[in-house]
């Protein structure tokens, strides 16, 4: 599973 | 951005505004757990430090500022302005039993061992249990004002909608954050008991009262 940890969520 | 995330954010914003208005209009914080509100202020403070380091969008920045501002305003109203109406005798949940394990877990299980990332992880874990003092207070008093149940419903629905947002983003964007998802599932499960009471009682016009 492609895990991306961008913080664009509130 | 997708419909589930937008609906979730708006539900969260509605909850925060409902609570602030309830306390301000009735000039009373009866039935509200000040401890939960302090935990939420801590959640927003530790999660939104990136306000100082990165700009994502006007929407993102605006919402973060509103969340933090309302959280601290609510804590101020409870512990300062309407302190006389604060139900300290029933708001007795031991929050150190939440903050300490959550703090330890944030150090052990995170995506990256950097200060900002550990604080973000701490805030994600803390948010999933931050409502417990409030649910505990309601179980002790055995009842809740109807406006308070609407606040709790919106608050519970927001993270449930985020679960759908994460399904959507995994399917369409390959975005996937295990920490946020697991904490979000735990958080939503904690509301299930309340959701049942809300749907079977409050939506039928009855007052929410627990079997004493």
Automatic annotation (TrEMBL), chain B:
InterPro entries: ER_ret_rcpt. It is found in: Cytoplasmic vesicle, COPI-coated vesicle membrane; Endoplasmic reticulum membrane; Golgi apparatus membrane. One of its GO terms (biological process) is protein transport. Keywords: Cytoplasmic vesicle, Endoplasmic reticulum, ER-Golgi transport, Membrane, Protein transport, Receptor, Transmembrane, Transmembrane helix, Transport. The chain crosses the membrane at residues 65-82, 119-138, 150-168, 174-199. Pfam families: ER_lumen_recept. It comes from Ameiurus melas (Black bullhead). Belongs to the ERD2 family. It is a multi-pass membrane protein. GO terms for cellular component: COPI-coated vesicle membrane; endoplasmic reticulum membrane; Golgi membrane. GO terms for molecular function: ER retention sequence binding. The keyword Zinc does not apply. This is ER lumen protein-retaining receptor.
């Amino acid at each position: 599973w492609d895990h991306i940890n961008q913080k664009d969520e509130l | 951005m997708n419909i589930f995330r937008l609906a979730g954010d708006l539900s969260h914003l509605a909850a925060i505004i409902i609570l602030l208005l309830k306390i301000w209009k009735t000039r009373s914080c009866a039935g509200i757990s000040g401890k939960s509100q302090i935990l939420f202020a801590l959640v927003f403070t530790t999660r939104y430090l990136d306000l100082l380091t990165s700009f994502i969008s006007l929407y993102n920045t605006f919402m973060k500022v509103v969340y933090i501002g309302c959280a601290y305003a609510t804590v101020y109203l409870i512990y300062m302005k309407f302190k006389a109406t604060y139900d300290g005798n029933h708001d007795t949940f031991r929050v150190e039993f939440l903050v300490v394990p959550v703090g330890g877990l944030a150090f052990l299980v995170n995506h990256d061992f950097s200060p900002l990332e550990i604080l973000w992880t701490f805030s994600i874990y803390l948010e999933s249990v931050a409502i417990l003092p409030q649910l505990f207070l309601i179980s002790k008093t055995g009842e809740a004002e109807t406006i308070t149940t609407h606040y709790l419903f919106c608050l519970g629905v927001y993270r449930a909608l985020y679960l759908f947002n994460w399904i959507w983003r995994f399917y369409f964007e390959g975005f996937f954050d295990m920490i946020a998802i697991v904490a979000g599932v735990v958080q939503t499960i904690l509301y299930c008991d309340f959701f049942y009471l809300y749907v079977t009682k409050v939506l039928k016009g009855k007052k929410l009262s627990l079997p004493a």
